[in-house]
Amino acid sequence: MEKQINLYIYDKNLNFIGVMDDFISLRWRRKYFESGEFEINLFYDETIKRYLQEDNIIVREDDLEAGIIESWQINDDGNNVKLKILGRFLTSILERRIVKNTINFKGKYLEGEREVLKQMTPFSMLEIKPTELDSEKVIFQCTYKNVYSYLNKLSKSSNIAHRIVVDIPNKKFIYENYEGLNRTETQNINVRFEFSEDRLNINTSKYTYSSKKEKNFVLVGGSGEGTERIMVTVKNGTHNDLELKEMFLNSSQTKKEENMSDTDYLQLLKNLGSEKISTSIETFELKAFADDYKKFWNLGDVVNVKKESWEIYLKKRITEIEEVIERNKRDVFVTLGNPLAETFVEDGRD
Asked: CA separation (Å) from 294 to 65, 203, 279?
């Protein structure tokens, strides 16, 4: 029998309102590169009305991420009145901000994230936590971009996630970075883990492969005309015949700034071309044993996946974890995707 999960409700200033402990069902979906989401279903009565306020905060007693209420629905089917509360995790509040100034950044990814946060209209309750994680270097130009979307782009390229957690005593929202663990045989630091038929820890599963939108060669046209036009190529490997999938990208609107070196301008054009580079999609979804979750594996970890009967052997990152809790039953569904960082995509100028 599963332990009842308590949900603590706070207002937008992190003042305590009450405890929600008698829901019909809870869906709690965590994502590594994006904001997670939640759905709570319960019977509607007068005591519940106090929770129905936009931007109220939902805190689980057994999880770091917290949710923020965005919508709700009351439904009377003639027998019962039920309430559905919907929202996303706190990282989604960054979707309410844009970058209003032009940022020309050259440095490490996690420093770039903090520069984007620094340039947005501030949240008075948001505190940016220093990080000891290291990251690769990047060059980008960012103007009028949505802060949430741009930080997700940086995260996918660095392979380092971010989240906003609550500090209740100090009434603060804390922005922090974190990184999943490598649990494959390619390392000897972390405890290894695999999902496999042999280990009897895959209940149901679905494998997806598609190369429909793959592009592996992009010719990018920058500023200038005719033979004077600046051209760069971006490619993913060496391909011929049917394997070669080309396209042209017109980026003449991307101008070289006065203080920008030739090398940095060419890199901007290459980043634009990288947006169009796309590989085949390969994902694996499974229903896992709930008791193993957070004990042997967690969101962001890279693990082995073996579906022996299908002759599928993969190393994948856990990109999503969805818990569905109904009364005393808990199911955990796992989505595994690409373990490698994506090539950084420069949006260009608006």
From this structure: 14, 18, 31
Tell me the DSSP string of 97-165. Answer: -BB-S-EEEEEEHHHHHHHHHHHBPPPTTEEE--------EEEEEESS-BHHHHHHHHHHHHT-EEEEE
Whether 171 shows a pLDDT value over 80: the answer reads yes
Chain mean position to CA 149:
10
196: nearest Cα among 90, 305, 346: 305
CA nearest to 306, candidates 171, 196, 210, 224: 196
Query: What does the longest C-alpha to C-alpha distance in the chain come to?
Result: 75
CA distance 287 to 205: 7
Q: What is the pLDDT of residues 240-297, one digit of tens each?
A: 999 999 999 998 877 787 778 888 889 888 878 887 887 778 899 999 999 999 999 9
Q: How confident is the model at residue 341 (pLDDT cuts 50, 70, 90)?
A: low
Per-residue exposure over 147-164, b if at least 16 CB sit within 10 Å of its own CB, e if not? bbebbbbbbbbbbbbbbb
pTM equals 0.86
Across-strand partners of 90? none
- Angle of CA points 301, 336, 347, to nearest 5°: 90
DSSP label at residue 2:
P
Closest CA to 347 of 63, 144, 71: 144
